[in-house]
Amino acid sequence: MRILIIGGTSSLVHALKPVLSEFAEVITAGRTGSDVYLDLSDPVEKMELPKDINVVINTAASFGGN
């Protein structure tokens, strides 16, 4: 199983990743410090998720600017 967690540097990810890693491959996505670059403020056409993901967990938010 492959799990993608969006918001790769959030405190929730730091708690979830070790637990989920016991039974699945966990990939993080975010703007910095993540396995995959993903910026929620980018246009949808520009976003690309890794292949063969079974579960997506979103721990991030975008408020559209400053």
Set down the secondary structure blueprint.
Elements: E1 2-6, H1 11-20, E2 25-30, E3 36-37, E4 55-58
Parallel strand pairs: 1-2, 1-4, 2-3
Supply database-style keywords.
1 helix, 26% strand, 15% helix, alpha/beta, 4-stranded parallel sheet, 66 residues, single chain, globular
Task: Briefly say what this structure is.
The protein has 66 residues and is an alpha/beta fold. It has one helix at residues 11-20, and strands at residues 2-6, 25-30, 36-37, 55-58.
Explain what the structure shows.
The chain is α/β, with parallel strands linked by helices. It is 15% helix and 26% strand. The protein contains 1 helix and 4 strands; from the N terminus they run E-H-E-E-E. It has one helix at 11-20; strands spanning 2-6, 25-30, 36-37, 55-58. A 4-stranded parallel sheet has the order 3-2-1-4. The longest helix is centred in the N-terminal third of the chain and has 10 residues, at 11-20. The radius of gyration is 12 Å and the shape is globular.
Secondary-structure-based class equals: alpha/beta
Largest sheet: 4 strands, parallel
Which stretches are low in confidence, meaning pLDDT under 50 for 5 or more residues running?
none
Order of helices and strands: EHEEE
Distance between the amino and carboxyl termini? 36 Å
- Number of DSSP strand runs: 4
Radius of gyration: 12 Å
Shape: globular
Helical fraction equals: 10-25%
Number of helices: 1
Strand order, sheet with most strands: 3-2-1-4
